[in-house]
């Protein structure tokens, strides 16, 4: 345990807290966020694909239901447009250029009134609304898709410009207030919906295209966040192991070496006075060639 005492230092404590917080966010926020978007996109794509093959139904059959999974369903409506009920939605795009969505009220034969998106129309010089033709009068038969309201942008209230009432999002409740007209929201899983006209319908401009049936990158992003949540603690563990290994090498390098006993060299013997032999010369030091021959077993050439 003493060897792990460095983990209590502030730098290591902060690093561990950051790694733990990051892993927690990966598993509880970031990965579920992306995986949830993948699930909702897949469900939307499935509803659109199913609606393409399904025959349209009378819109009155969905007005009184719970509204779950009704968005994108094809419906028909019998009735007439309400005069002077045009509302424009700002900040739309048509073929890459600024445009408006044109909304109007449509009164059913049973007296209920729905919000209808007539499609998009290009802005004049990219800055102002063009003259909007009024919808056709009299009895009309519409084919459309159910769309969910987009919600209200609190920071951008409705306004009147170029002679038209204008809003920043398609929301049944807000348009109802702007027109001072009770609009019946179409139930769409908790959000009041409206009708988006199909091509070729009475009063339609350029219809809003269906979204591409592509699940997008959300699944791979979600899996990546899960992988990051696993890799972060593993990376911290590797740093701890590397620190322990470095400290072990430092201790081995600084540890005192054990003392060794050297043999005492014998004193040289003085030559005898009666000896006629000269004293022997000290052995010659080996040359480089001799050392190499001794190490590699032969004479270097």
Brief overview, please?
With 301 residues, the protein is α+β, with helices and mostly antiparallel strands. The protein contains five helices and ten strands; from the N terminus they run αβαβββββββαββαα. The chain has a five-stranded mixed barrel.
Structure report:
Helices cover 34% and strands 22% of the residues. It has helices at residues 10-53, 60-63, 172-179, 218-254, 288-296, and strands at residues 57-58, 74-81, 87-94, 97-108, 113-122, 140-148, 159-161, 164-167, 186-188, 191-197. Strand 3 (87-94) and strand 4 (97-108) form a beta hairpin. The two termini are 58 Å apart.
Number of strands: 10
Major sheet: arrangement of strands: 2-4-5-10-6
Radius of gyration: 43 Å
Q: How much strand?
A: 15-25%
Spans of at least 5 consecutive residues with low confidence: none
- For the record, give the distance between the C-alpha atoms at the N and C termini, rounded to a whole number: 58 Å
Q: Helical residue percent?
A: 25-40%
SS-based class: alpha+beta
Largest sheet: 5 strands, mixed, barrel
Features of the shown structure:
22% strand; 301 residues; five-stranded mixed β-barrel; alpha+beta
